[in-house]
């Protein structure tokens, strides 16, 4: 039922557009908004995905091939942005786009791409919700990917004198966790940057420490690291 309404609406809008070219973008926005209301009863699947910054990632609409696809729509909700909507009509081999500039997103509707959305390269601004809606004669379906962009922190270790060592995990996303061996007298501060990356700084002092080295362990979703420092003067 909704499918029929949807098609009728699209046809109607095509005629309206033909009559009034300057109203084109308005109708386009209207159609797409109507579309989201019409298919509110659909079958939904949601999953959380993550991707590392400066890599390429694909988000898929469906995992196995779908017979008799009528239409596929990607709705992209990013922080501080108007929703970006891209719709593809199978029978017309036609794509429409609203508010989707500069996201680094490409969408190839060709069958061999399986309606995958490609983000290349991934940036910190790609955090958000990517919803794919596909319409078939059997009903309407939705897949939502909640994308979290990961940024590996840059790790530094420096001796501050007086058996005080500072370990930093700079601009990681999410914040890195820092621990030490041996345990010292430490304090840790986190600083969140405008791009939602976090610098974690841990400063430790060892009073009466006899060992020859201290190791800072940085654990992060993009991989764990450790850095050590030797105390040469200490053995005297
Ligand atoms: C596209 O963006 C403009 C301005 O940001 C906004 O007014 C409009 O509602 C958006 N269109 C849709 C369909 O969200
Ligand atoms: C994304 O999809 C394209 C086209 O199918 C493919 O060439 C590429 O290797 C895929 N990339 C990843 C990271 O899966
Ligand atoms: C769809 O259109 C694109 C160009 O807009 C074309 O390259 C492609 O061959 C067309 N596919 C079909 C199935 O007609
Ligand atoms: C170094 O440690 C000594 C003794 O604990 C203290 O008197 C001195 O002020 C410290 N110096 C610095 C720069 O923290
Ligand atoms: C995020 O912002 C910080 C501080 O301005 C900067 O050092 C870092 O390179 C930025 N990271 C990304 C991935 O944009
Ligand atoms: C440091 O080493 C000395 C001698 O090797 C030992 O007596 C002392 O207990 C050690 N201190 C600590 C804190 O391990």
UniProtKB/TrEMBL annotation:
Cell compartments where the protein resides: Membrane
Any one of the GO BP annotations: regulation of neuroinflammatory response
Keyword Cytoplasm: no
Record Pfam families: C2-set_2 (PF08205), V-set (PF07686)
Swiss-Prot/TrEMBL keywords: Disulfide bond, Glycoprotein, Membrane, Receptor, Signal, Transmembrane, Transmembrane helix
Main location: membrane
Membrane association type: Single-pass type I membrane protein
Record GO cellular component, one term: external side of plasma membrane
Location of the Ig-like domain: 152-228
GO molecular function: signaling receptor activity
Presence of the UniProt keyword Glycoprotein in the record: yes
Family: Belongs to the CD200R family.
Name assigned to this protein: Ig-like domain-containing protein
Source organism (scientific name): Vombatus ursinus
Lineage: Eukaryota, Metazoa, Chordata, Craniata, Vertebrata
């Amino acid at each position: 039922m909704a499918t029929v309404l949807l098609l009728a609406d699209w046809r109607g809008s095509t005629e309206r557009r033909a009559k009034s070219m300057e109203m084109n973008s308005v109708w386009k926005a209207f159609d797409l908004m109507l579309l989201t209301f019409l298919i509110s009863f659909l079958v939904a699947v949601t999953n959380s995905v993550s991707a590392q910054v400066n890599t390429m990632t694909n988000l898929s609409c469906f995992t196995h091939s779908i017979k008799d696809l009528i239409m596929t729509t990607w709705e992209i909700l990013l922080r501080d942005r108007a929703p970006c909507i891209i719709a593809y009509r199978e029978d017309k081999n036609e794509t429409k786009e609203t508010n989707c500039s500069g996201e680094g997103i490409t969408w190839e509707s060709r069958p061999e791409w399986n309606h995958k959305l490609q983000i290349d390269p991934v940036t910190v601004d790609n955090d958000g919700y990517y919803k794919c809606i596909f319409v078939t004669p059997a009903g309407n379906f939705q897949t939502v990917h909640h994308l979290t962009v990961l940024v590996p922190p840059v790790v530094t270790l420096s001796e501050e004198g007086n058996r005080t060592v500072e370990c930093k995990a700079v601009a990681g996303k999410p914040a890195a966790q820092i621990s030490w061996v041996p345990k010292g007298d430490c304090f840790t501060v986190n600083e969140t940057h405008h791009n939602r990356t976090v610098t974690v700084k841990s400063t430790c002092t060892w009073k009466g420490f006899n060992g020859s080295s201290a190791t800072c362990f940085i654990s992060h979703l993009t991989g764990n690291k450790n850095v050590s420092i030797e105390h040469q003067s200490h053995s005297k």
